[in-house]
Amino acid sequence: MRSKRLLALSVVLCLVVVAGMLPLAACGPTAEKTLKIGMTTPSSGPAAEKGSPMGHANLDCIKYVNEELGGVDGHQIEVLWLDNGYDAAKAATIVKRFIDEDCLFFTTASSGMMSAMMELANRDYFPGISSFSSPVLTHPPRHIYGQTPDYGDDWAAFARYFMDNIWKGPGKPRMAMHLLNNPTGYGARDAARALADDFGIEIDFDNWVFEHATTTTSEIASLTTILDDDIDILYISSTPAPTSIIIKNAVELGMFPDMLIGCGHASFTKALIDLAGADVVEGVYGVYPTVDWDDDVPGLAKVIEYCKKEHPNDYGNMDYIISWAQSLIAVEILRLAVQNAGIENLTPQVVEEQGFKKLKDFDVGGLHGPVTYSPGDNRLSKSVRVFQIKGGAITPVSGWVEAPLVKYEEYDWFGK
Question: Could you tell me if 261 and 303 lie in one domain?
Answer without folding.
Answer: no
